[in-house]
């Protein structure tokens, strides 16, 4: 049962990032930071790790003269997160390893 847990989502911050992005098409860096109450450095580290796994799509653009970075879950990220949640739910229901 535990083999279906995804280590990429073990951290509270990454679990929060993916949870928020599953219900929002995309969010800005600042939006994620405010929602999850994370520091710039902490959020950036976790976003980078999820991006390296192929779970996040990063869009960088300028709004006026200000840089704006938004993040969204990729289809691979959505599938991996759904599978992780299903494994957690099954574990909670059965209590078996």
Automatic annotation (TrEMBL):
Pfam families: HTH_34 (PF13601). This is Transcriptional regulator. It comes from Runella rosea. GO terms for biological process: regulation of DNA-templated transcription. PANTHER family: BSL7504 PROTEIN. Residues 14-92 form the Winged helix DNA-binding domain.
């Amino acid at each position: 049962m535990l083999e279906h847990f995804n280590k990429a989502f073990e951290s509270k911050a990454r679990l929060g990032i993916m949870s928020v992005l599953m219900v929002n098409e995309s969010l800005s860096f600042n939006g994620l930071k405010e929602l999850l109450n994370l520091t710039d450095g902490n959020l950036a580290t976790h976003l980078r790790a999820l991006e390296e796994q192929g779970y996040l799509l990063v869009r960088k653009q300028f709004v006026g003269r200000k840089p704006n970075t938004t993040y969204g879950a990729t289809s691979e990220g959505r599938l991996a997160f759904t599978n992780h949640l299903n494994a957690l739910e099954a574990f909670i229901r059965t209590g078996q390893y």
